[in-house]
Amino acid sequence: MRKYTGLAVSAILAAAMAGAPRLCFAEADAAQAYQEGKAAFSAGQFDKARELFAKASETDVKNPEVFLMLGKADYELGKVSEAIAAWSKTVELAPQEPYAAKMLKQLRGEGADAEQSVKLVQALVGDELYDAAVETANRILARAALADEQRVQVILLKSEALLDLNRPREAQAAVREAVVKFPKLVDQGRADVLIARAKVRTGGDAAGEGVALLNKVITDHPNTPEASAAQLELLGFELEQSPTQAGVDALTKWLGAHGDDPLADKARRRLISAQFALTDRTADAGPETTHTASDRSALDDAATLYKRLVRSEAALKLTQEIVAHFDSHYAAHRAYAAAAEGMQLLVKAAPPGASLSVAMHALGRYQVELALRDAARQVDGGQPAAQLPKAVADALATLAAINQQFPYD
Fold first, then answer.
1. How many Å apart are CA 197 and CA 11, to the nearest integer?
2. pTM, rounded to two decimals
3. Residue 95, Cα to own-chain centre: how many angstroms?
4. Contact in structure between 274 and 239 (CB atoms under 8 Å)
């Protein structure tokens, strides 16, 4: 058998590569990007997934699966126009692909009756895909096939989405359009709540007008969903102005009475933010600080909320808020033990998708800082560092768990 020296083999490989198409390397990169994108998508990291699928689509231009997943990532991020473009490419490459074809029909309104169109906007608002809800509502309203009652529903749903996008003036204009064009079809209580919310978010003198209108709704429409929504808005506004224990208790009481209300999850998120704000306002932090009762309650509420959230993106946003609070209030003041204890409770709550990775990374950071502090104290005290302090062992165990559970991070 003929043998080649290392130099000869290298020369042969170089010659072969020179004559081979470079596309194979690009295809390999695209395949890797696609697989990494699927892993990121499964972990709820939709921005990262979209970037990877877009990279794969630049080279792997004939693969319908790439464009299918690109569309899914776009949709999760509320980028409806981009999702439509990606899924249009999917069905161009694979006309029988069922998921893309179904989503295109829904989003374009093809083959769907008016009632389904209304339900689509309602679902988008419920899933907190507000940009997508506004875009879809505008597309539906441009069609002439809606009954007046359905047109009113879509306009009011669009207004709700605009409020959650912090576009209060547009939201108020949408409600007033419905009231002017369809005065007999608009539920006045619902319209008043939306207008009041828009005024409160506008600020200035309008905020006072909004508060007065919310109180009027509570008086004029007792024991109705509109009154409950008005009460929640008032409680949230008061807590934003000045977080107090009385305000937190009042919002907790509202949740106890309206646990199945469609607004309950939003109320619980507001309560968590208010509890953190109360800690920041009333409690100082230092190296020996333990985390506050308010923060423990917030973590309990977060554990409940994680079980109710459908979208990983919403859970990730909540987790990032929690970690940011423990970073700023505890870790920034070297209260690493309190920060680590809080993150252990958060990890125990088993947040979904990428949220668990974020929580575990934070826990590892706090444990490392705590370990370094304990080791420094041990050395400063003249004790031999014969074995790892417990805090060091805990930190290493957390980091090992991260590497095992989240190899793509």
1. 73
2. 0.69
3. 32
4. yes
